[in-house]
Write a sequence for this structure.
């Protein structure tokens, strides 16, 4: 049984990719907020957990992964459409996220990051003083320390 297929546009893409070299590719992702945390999923099918690097520096999260071909010396390639090589992605985190408490997990080819919202960025209730025209500092209570 042989596999035959002709798609001139895919072949042109493959040739262009070969001419340009198999450089860095971007990693597809999905991000959303759930309560007090941001959740980000990165698709890394066929990548072993040991081949994923995750670094955080200041407010930049960098993901680098490598997917290798299972082919061996002497294999005859019939079709080669699966992306291989090095994949990367960077996320710039806002000041409202706590990168110190970032958690990462990897399951079934999906890298998941959970990034909590920083305490100082969470909404908080501000008490409003009554009966005085004097402005009150936030967090100060009346009746103590008078003198």
């Amino acid at each position: 049984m042989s596999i035959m297929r002709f798609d001139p546009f895919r072949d042109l893409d493959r040739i262009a990719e070969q001419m340009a070299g198999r450089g860095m590719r971007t990693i597809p992702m999905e991000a959303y907020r759930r309560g007090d945390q941001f959740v980000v999923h990165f698709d890394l099918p066929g990548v072993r957990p040991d081949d994923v690097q995750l670094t955080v520096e200041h407010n930049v999260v960098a993901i680098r992964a490598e997917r290798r071909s299972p082919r061996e010396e002497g294999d005859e390639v019939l079709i080669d459409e699966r992306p291989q090589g090095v994949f990367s992605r960077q996320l710039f985190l806002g000041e409202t996220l706590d990168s110190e408490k970032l958690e990462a997990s990897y399951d079934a080819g999906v890298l998941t990051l959970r990034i909590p919202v920083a305490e100082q960025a969470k909404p908080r209730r501000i008490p409003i003083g009554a009966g005085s025209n004097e402005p009150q500092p936030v967090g100060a209570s009346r009746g103590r320390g008078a003198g």
User: Anything to note?
Assistant: The two ends are 95 Å apart (CA to CA). The helical segments are 8-20. The CA atoms of residues 64 and 88 lie 4 Å apart.
